Amino acid sequence: xxxPELNLSQLRTFVAAADRLSxxxxxxxxxxxxxxxxxxxxxxxxxxxxPLFERHTRRIALTTAGDTLLxxxxxxxxxxxxxxxxxxxxxxxxxxxxxxxxDYISSLLPPLLERFSRMFAKVExxxxxxxxxxxxxxxxKGAIDLAFVTRSPGLEGQFVRREPMxxxxxxxxxxWNKNPLPVALYEHGCVARExxxxxxxxxxxxxxxxxxxxxxxxxxxxxxxxxxxxxxxxCSVPPHLVRLGPExxxxxxTPLDIVLIKGRENSSPAVECLANEIMLTLNGAHxxxxxxxxx
Length: 295
Hints:
This protein is 43% helix and 22% strand. It has helices at 8-20, 23-30, 34-48, 64-88, 102-107, 109-119, 132-141, 191-203, 216-224, 269-286, and strands at 53-55, 60-62, 94-100, 123-129, 146-150, 158-163, 165-169, 181-186, 207-213, 229-233, 242-244, 256-262. The longest helix has 25 residues, at 64-88. The protein is globular and about 70 Å long.
C-alpha cells in the first residue's frame, strides 16, 4: 500500500481550518482566499483518500479521519518550524521594534521573548507599550515593525488567538455586591472597554466608572483596593483575584481577538523570525499551532 505524500502547505491550511472550524477563518489565518483554502483541503482529502471535514451550512466539523490526522499535522508543522529556525538562527542579525498593550506584554510575551533571544542572540528587540489603537499610526509611519494588538476596525492582521475576558474582584472587599457597580475601565478607544460596557448594558445592571486608564497596573490597584471590579483579558488575571461569573450576577463578555500586524516598511529576516515565533508559540497556547501564514 502506497503511503500518502503529505504537503506541508496543505497541512497548514488544514490545521488552521480545524482550529477556527471555518474555511473563512482559515483563510484569514493563512492569508489566502476562501476558494484557495477550499481547494487545498480538497487536494489534501484526495491525497489521504478520506474526507477530513463535515461541511455544514455555517460551520465545519472534523471527521474521524480529520481527528486522526490533526495531531500529526501539528507535529510536522512544528518540525518544519524547528528545522527552519535551526538553519537560520545563527545568521539572523538585526533589530525589531514590537508594539503591544501592557497586559499582553506582561503576560504573554516574556517567555516567548526570552526563548527568542536565546535562539537569535544577534537580534535586538525594542518593546513599545501602548494601547492597541495608538500603535496603528506608529505602524503606518514605520516607527514599529510589528504590532501585537487587539483586533478592531482599522487593526486587521494575522489572527493569533482568541483571549477570553474575565470579571475580577478582590475577595476581602466583595465590591461586586455594590449598587451601582463600581467598575475600573480601560480608557476610551479600547476594545476591552467597549465589550465590558456592552455586557453590563445588555443585562441592564447599573454601574459607575470609578477609574479610566490605559494601564493594567492602575486598574489592578483599584481592584485590589476594593474600589472597583474590572474585566480583564484572562491571560493577565493575577491569581489572588476572585473570578466573577453568573453566580455573582456578571454576564459573559465578548472575547478579544489578538492579531499580529507586520509593518510594510520592514520585512527583514529579524522581523520575519520574530513574527513566525509569535505565531507558532502564542497561536498554540489557546488553540494549537497553525503555522505562520507569512509565506
